[in-house]
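#lab-general

N.A. 3:47 PM
ok so I finally got the sequence cleaned up, no stray characters, all 354 residues accounted for. can someone with queue access submit it? mine expired

B.Y. 3:52 PM
send it over

N.A. 3:53 PM
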Amino acid sequence: MTTVYLHVGMPKCASTALQSFLHRNDGLHRSEGLCYPMTCREDTGYFSHRPLHNLQPVEIPTAIEKIAREAAAADCDRILISSEEFVNSLWDCEITGHIVDALNVRFGVENVRIMILFRNPFPFVESVYAQFLKGGMFRTPGEAFMKSRANDIQAFAMNFRMRHGFDFFSYSAFVERLRFHAPFNPFDMLSIERADWDGADILDVLCRRLGITRGNPEVAANERYSETALHLLHHARRTHGFQKTKARRGIIAALFPNQDGLFSKLIHVHGDLFDQIQDSAERDRRYFQRHSSEPNDHLFRTPNGYEKSRDQKDQLIVPTWQLKLAERIVTRGEMSMAFAQKMKSIMQRKAEQA
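B.Y. 4:20 PM
back already:
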């Protein structure tokens, strides 16, 4: 009997690490009985099964059958399919339901497990907003949002709620929407917080669950931008739009790589948003207690250091010369890292001499 694990996210919850790990160790894991299908898998980037979402509903059963044959040919009795698009598409298309239905028909409802990874909601919210500034998130209409009067982290959370009717940090709301498409499938709702697993990394936890070994431990991870770089991306997107900013975001990040750790209301949880996340975490704790036996105590705790952010004042001040530098980087016709570094040195020196 074949068991299928349908890993659906959440975004910013170790999906990239898991996907790159399974890709790098594909041959080893197939020899251990786990197939990370090449069918409908990206061959670059994140190596996820996002191409499944590009199929028409009538094409999905054929794709699932190809996955089943690929696993059988490799003598694998476990299959793992992974894509954050299963979550990202919940509110604008029905593709998740079509894929679950096809898997259930082919493998049996009891053998198709919906796997969701979660991180503590406080850093999750900050990571989601940072990802939005870098490249987009949860299909938020970026241009309209950035041109609105309020476009900080609190406004981002409010914008999502207004468009979809629930908070993106409400994990139980996501699970319930997934259960609508998979009402009879078993769910694996796993915390990625090390403290919930006696210090173990989530990949080690999953290896034990899936019956595979670590093999090549190297995994990919999304690059974390400094607070200053995120401020500059915000300014550049607001003044010159996403496309120009996206083309030069790597240069901006490289010019300001250090994590200064200074608190900023633009990008950090504070005020009413803090209270909303805390209340949501308590509701989710009770929901998970009813629907999951997995350890999650630290998943829903307010992390050390966040309590003071409730009423924290801004600490990060981005000088005008840095804002002007970001504008020049995204608007100049030709731009290299070397030239950007030269511009930074000149503008910083002039600002210090003024």
